């Protein structure tokens, strides 16, 4: 779950982290009224992705007329896959220095990682590549938590204008947000030091683990849904993990791993997969809507069905697909690869009811599907 800047900052503020004075707006007139109230401000597109400023999604204005024009321009934009539907009008701040602060999942160490740099306001990826020593990395033992003394020790010597203690306190609060909100990433870039020596989170990126949605309550409603196609929305309504792609080879496979592997083999064979659709042992009961969903994509010119069973029986899954095929009677060519528990019975079912013999090798079935789609 990703959050736009305004929603992420509200969560930071609830945890006691400092944020600028700002007003969320949906129209150019609301933005003009907000600038009348706040004075010189930044108008920011509210989409849950970075680099908005580079494409014109952030504009500085001094008065209501400039705000109205800037807001109208930004609201007409599409940034990434998102149409801009909201704006954050935020009071300009007298900035003295810019820092970078974040807490994220360290996948290699299977633990949280706190990051801090005295060079905020720029792409952290570029800084990490060019000057990795400029980023302070503080690994966290998930069992022990983040010790303030650990943070102070890591920051000492970084020439932070006497605000080591304030930054250490802020990083501790940031870690609490990460932990309590089941976050994968909570990032402030830039974290700014103002002329009055106070710290303020000038931007915020927040991502919460989808798997933790059940225990995050109303925070889920504050997130921004990922943009999806009509077919992806249908798939979600059916309870499928379905992603529409731009290829011509449709795919039904059991389990996410086998599905991804089959997609890779399709690409290796010179084809392009038309979808990701994870369907496992429940294929027997959901094969008809799954098959209908995949074939509703007009780009699909062929279909590969790849089942590999261990605990799930391939004959049961295959019977589900056969019944779906008999119900829908599609006209695209279909190619099967079936291995594992129940494969002999599955082969007999396919031959008896559809007159189709599965390929012995998955690669051959995929190659045939790719050639049929060309």
Automatic annotation (TrEMBL):
It comes from the Bacteria. Residues 9-225 form the ATP-grasp domain. Transmembrane segments: none annotated. Keywords: ATP-binding, Ligase, Magnesium, Metal-binding, Nucleotide-binding, Tricarboxylic acid cycle. One of its GO terms (molecular function) is ligase activity. It holds the Pfam family Ligase_CoA. This is Succinate--CoA ligase subunit beta. It comes from Salinisphaera aquimarina. The lineage of its organism: Bacteria, Pseudomonadati, Pseudomonadota, Gammaproteobacteria, Salinisphaerales.
